[in-house]
Amino acid sequence: MKTTAENLQGSRLDLFIDGRFTRPHSGQYVPSYDPTTAEPWYQFAQADAVDVDVAVRSARAALKNPAWHRMTQTERGKLVRRLADLVLENAEELALIECRDNGKLLKEMRAQMRAVPDSYIYFAGMADKLQGDTIPVNKLDTLNYNVREPVGVVGMIIPWNSPLMMLTGTLAPCLAIGNTIVVKPSEHATASTLALAELVIEAGIPPGVFNVVTGDGATTGDALTRHPGIARFVFTGSTSTGRKIAGNAAQNLVPCQMELGGKSPHVVFSDADVERAVNGVVAGVFAAAGQTCVAGSRCFVEAPVYERFVEALVERTRRITVGHPTSEATDIGPLALAAQLDKVQGYVASGVQEGARIAIGGRKPLDTALQRGWYFEPTVMTQARNDMRFMRDEIFGPVVGVVPFNTEEELIELANDTEYGLASGIWTNDIDRALRFARDVDAGTVWINTFRSAAYMSPNGGSKHSGYGYRGGFEVMREFSRLKNVVVDYSGAMQDPFVIRLR
Ligand code: NAD
Predict the structure, then answer these.
(1) How much distance in Å is there from the Cα of 242 to the middle of ligand 1?
(2) CA nearest neighbour of 175 among 113, 90, 87, 254
(3) How many domains does the chain have?
(4) What is the Cα–Cα distance from 79 to 118, expressed in whole angstroms?
């Protein structure tokens, strides 16, 4: 892999179309910033509608390339497996690139780059397991069967928070099925997707199967989502962007998979082990500086244990180390963008204005070494209410509001009183209560005595404004393939078409 964190410094990254790096039509390049210093790091190409059209045409041509579509499923699975090996071989470099691009901890990115190859291997094994059915129809001498086929060109738009991890969830199954792809990474973390493109070619996947158009949402993303040559979209990002994309895709009657924002309830009952619950709540909302879609940002605590829990949560939060993302000692790195820092500060201020109290955090760290970066202290807000603005909107930062509740009925009302439905968590030693919560909470994922424990084998998706469609498990193979029904009459006699026979 030629792209490395070191040689990215001061470099210019081109688009990746039809197996080659290509200069953008506009000739324009845009800086990407290092979140620890707020200084430019490299520049990426700004693709316009012309580049997007070339990329989609290349992906459409690749669909017809016999080297891809006449390959057996088993052979295709082997290529995806080879890609897994290459990602693993380059895991350290990919982790360094993502860490410097989005400011997430190097140790977390290293862990992700070990999980990503496993995910490719999992889906590689499914390449030759996507089978159809024969259907016993009400006709003699008739064979009626279904086959599953690739849908065509899949457009993928991904966010900055875990680019390769997010991409893999749908790229791996799409490759295994035999689709072709045009991906637009986030303008805030572009480099790792282009590095992956090199590995795709090295793995032996034919040119044009995987294309990368880089640039912002308003130009590049918009052009991609309006393109009539796309068969299906997968979007991971904010709910407001999801609305625009679904609107554009609808003009071409193109279905979408939407993996959007969240405002997940995280519940603690009096019978829970307080230390474990505190660790769970801290991991659920402060990991990755709160920049995770599933962040348990609304914490509901049973009234009898509220004071004790808040005290323990504040005490544990005090021991969190905010620092440079490459340091082993760091628990929380910077936020990925300057705008994100402004947004987090704005929400904390609005919470205070509405009557919440900052129990700890609520500001940039005082450490002089961290002044240039987009750092923010982990923040616990008490005296919070579920109707406050900071408890309703997704903040995507290290801020949790803690609210007491008295009964299970009240809890379910509070937990479901949100426009989102992505994830949820509960801490209790009462299994009946945990299962009642799992039954009644409106969320795509329920964690019981754990949080943020994700697996690519299980289907994950959201409800309400958190989106639709699933990532993970065999379900994804169905979502990115389509059924074709074939009917064969082997009676040897075509009946008179104008004689209607009633059985
Ligand atoms: P975002 O919506 O700002 O951007 C996501 C992507 O969409 C980027 O590539 C961006 O360039 C593109 N985009 C923006 N405007 C566009 C437009 N008009 N047309 C087409 N593309 C456009 O989101 P973000 O700030 O990058 O990521 C954070 C959001 O992602 C949060 O809301 C988070 O909850 C969500 N997210 C969801 C999941 C999930 O699985 N549900 C996972 C990770 C992140």
Answers:
(1) 7
(2) 87
(3) 2
(4) 14
> Got the DSSP string for 273-322?
-HHHHHHHHHHHHHGGGG-STT---EEEEEGGGHHHHHHHHHHHHHTPPB
Q: For residue 143, which amino acid is it?
A: L
Give the catalytic positions in this structure: 259, 293
CATH number for the domain that contains residue 169: 3.40.605.10
- Could you read off the pLDDT of 197-254 as tens digits, one per residue? 999 999 999 999 999 999 999 999 999 999 999 999 999 999 999 999 999 999 999 9
Q: How confident is the model at residue 412 (pLDDT cuts 50, 70, 90)?
A: very high
Residue 379: phi, psi to the nearest 5? -125, 125
Residue 301: closest CA among 382, 245, 379, 390: 382
Q: At 455, is the secondary structure helix, strand, or coil?
A: coil
Ligand 1 lining (C-beta closer than 6 Å): 157-161, 166, 184, 186-187, 216-218, 221-222, 225, 236-238, 241, 244-245, 259-262, 293, 394, 396, 422, 462, 467
What is the atom index within ligand 1 of the atom nearest the CA of 237?
30
Mean pLDDT of 354-379: 96
Q: What residues have CB less than 8 Å from 123, skipping those under 6 apart?
A: 80, 172, 173, 175, 176, 476, 477
Q: Is 88:117 a contact under the CB 8 Å cutoff?
A: yes
Shared domain for 165 and 274, answered yes or no, is no
Same domain for 272 and 383, yes or no, is yes
The structure's pTM equals 0.95
Q: How far is the CA of 55 from the centre of ligand 1 (A)?
A: 21
- Residues 443 and 422 sit within 8 Å (Cβ to Cβ): yes
Rounded Cα–Cα distance for residues 21 and 44 (Å): 12
Total count of residues recorded for the chain: 503
